[in-house]
Amino acid sequence: MFMGEFQHNIDPKGRLIIPARFREGLGDRFIVTKGLDNCLFVYPQQEWSEVEQKLKSLPFTRADARAFVRFFFSGATECDVDKQGRILLPNNLREYAKLDKETMVVGVSNRVEIWSKEEWENYNAKAAASFEQLAENLVDLL
Questions:
Q1: Which residue spans within 10-133 are E strands per DSSP?
Q2: Residue 53, C-beta contacts closer than 8 angstroms, at least 6 positions apart
Q3: What is the helix, strand, coil percentage profile of the chain, to 5?
Q4: Domain of 12?
Q5: Which among 23, 29, 128, 129 is positioned nearest to 76, based on CA atoms?
Q6: pLDDT under 70 in the chain at which residues?
Q7: Whole-angstrom Cα distance, residue 88 to residue 47?
Q8: DSSP state letters, 110-123
């Protein structure tokens, strides 16, 4: 399980350090793709296989299912960790998530998310305002 948040900078070549705590669960090679809320989703190989199977089961006759599958898979790339614990994020993914320099690497249960620091702070400010209502609506699910 992934949890916690870590601030790291992307270097001029587009490399980002993945926190050691997350590297243990992700392994040496994992998948990074466009996520929701303008962040990137990072999946270990096994978890990616499970997500892939679920998405394959969506009815291809539905336009919304086709659109989501295209969005999700077209942005996906395999990343390898170098000896310094960094990955190279492709330019298209950096642009999508508005990643420039300061980033937040966040553990979210079965995946890791990569956010621009500014987007993460904005998201948290909005979420904090409605956190109690969200909890109230979801409490029966816990």
A1: 15-17, 29-34, 40-44, 77-80, 86-88, 102-109, 111-116
A2: none
A3: 45, 30, 25
A4: 2-141
A5: 29
A6: 139-142
A7: 21
A8: TEEEEEEHHHHHHH
Residues 18, 23, 26, 27, CA torsion sign: positive
Write the CATH number for 131. Answer: 3.40.1550.20
pLDDT at 139: 65
Q: How far apart are CA 109 and CA 72, in angstroms?
A: 19
The amino acid at 109: S
Q: How many domains does the chain contain in total?
A: 1
Report, in angstroms and rounded to the nearest whole number, the Rg of the chain calculated over CA atoms: 16
pLDDT digits (tens, 9 = 90+) for 92-116: 999 999 999 999 999 999 999 999 9
